[in-house]
Amino acid sequence: MSLLHSVRTETNLSVLKTACSNCNLNELCLPIGLSEEEMIRVDEMVALRRKVRRGEHLYHAGQEFHAIYAVRTGFFKTDVLMGDGREQVTGFQMAGELLGLDGIGAEIHSCNAIALEDSEVCAIPFSNLEEFSREIVTLQQHFHKVMSREIVRDHGVMLLLGTMRAEERLAAFLLNLSQRFTARGYSPADFYLRMTREEIGSYLGLKLETVSRLFSRFQDEGLLSVQQKHIRILNIVGLKKLMNPARSGA
Amino acid sequence: MSLLHSVRTETNLSVLKTACSNCNLNELCLPIGLSEEEMIRVDEMVALRRKVRRGEHLYHAGQEFHAIYAVRTGFFKTDVLMGDGREQVTGFQMAGELLGLDGIGAEIHSCNAIALEDSEVCAIPFSNLEEFSREIVTLQQHFHKVMSREIVRDHGVMLLLGTMRAEERLAAFLLNLSQRFTARGYSPADFYLRMTREEIGSYLGLKLETVSRLFSRFQDEGLLSVQQKHIRILNIVGLKKLMNPARSGA
DNA sequence: CGCGCTGTTGAAACTTGTCAAAGTTTGTGG
DNA sequence: CCACAAACTTTGACAAGTTTCAACAGCGCG
Q1: Per-residue confidence (pLDDT) for residue A41, from 0 to 100
Q2: What's the pTM?
Q3: Whole domain around residue A176: which residue ranges?
């Protein structure tokens, strides 16, 4: 526990042992589908909980990789930076979602993970995860699925960035958020954005002004109500239509 | 082996057992780093070789997932299609690279894999892979790294699509190809593209006309020699500079 | 309570896309 | 083996979408 040389803005480590078996997230998180017995074994795997304050890094690009993190509470973004300062946000993560998969390949993190609000994660030392997944088939399978789904999600983002127009991108983004909030028991149509217009823009391959204009336009068109970060979706069907522009024939 | 109901354009299955231990690709492919003994065990894991002719699908989006494929020879693209016909190419795969990771999550393939030239793959039934990777730690670790690297690669493509200008994208694409050809013992500066301008454009989020104009411009600027699909890189430093436009300070 | 970060809006500029036409290569069938 | 058709590529002129630059408004943190 006397781990860190307490680097500048580094985050706090908590000594609290986390128990997946008690966690209300276990239906969204890694242990999906484990039997009660297996779940209790998995409790050993999770090392500790860690709090990350808004604006702080959970890990930096270039840093050594040791653990996968599961978001317990809060909200993160991951991004990659180009030499000249350009930023690409590669994802936004909320409760139950995993962070750090990018580090396995090179044993070095390839992106930054930054808390967008005060957050808490479970750290799962990767060697533990590999060890347990050799013994618990369900866990192995589930972990592989999680990684694969991350790949599929990334392909979806490529589709968005490569082929969609600005308004389609923002609609897709809002619908995706809506759906993920719903899965966590929150309102599908009324939520607070945790990220700035610039971060949304970076994720969607747009400039912040474009995002802002689009929000205004969607509001004018009666699709949304926008008050800063407070979004209400007023016409979800309309939003969906924006994404799938009427195809003539088919 | 009496597998397929011989669907229309479906590909041929070969009864040949593949042996990783004899394969000259094993330094690029899944079995990297295995001991000779382990390698021989892994031979059992690989089910069979399959030929895929140019233009044919290795698998379709929506099809049930059973196996991961390793490219032995040839060249593939993977793509996802939107309802209205828009296509996003998500990757180009060459010898030693893996196809099918997208299918693990939902047990259904989420993209199409199409041969761009007559090709041959090794099919590795996924249940075998999971079984063997429970026993052979090196294999488990390597497989996890391969998946993670795919995620990192995807993030690189997001960066490209989200933040780079057309000329930077094409430069990055050519340098990436060059580097992968080099890793396979081919010339870094003289190669044949297997894909059309439209496919390059789809991968890079550009229209085929833009790609064509860019090739012409790069040629005018003395960076490349372009004769249809035959590319010679004449000024690799110049290409790299295009990607990292001179930063003022730093 | 004010300074700074975040967001909004406008006008002009620029990059890339669209449409169109013609040239080139490749593949196929006679 | 030639000829024709289809697919792919190149190039131009113009249009459109998005960015850039700039000014200002609002909220929130210290």
Answers
A1: 85
A2: 0.91
A3: 164-243
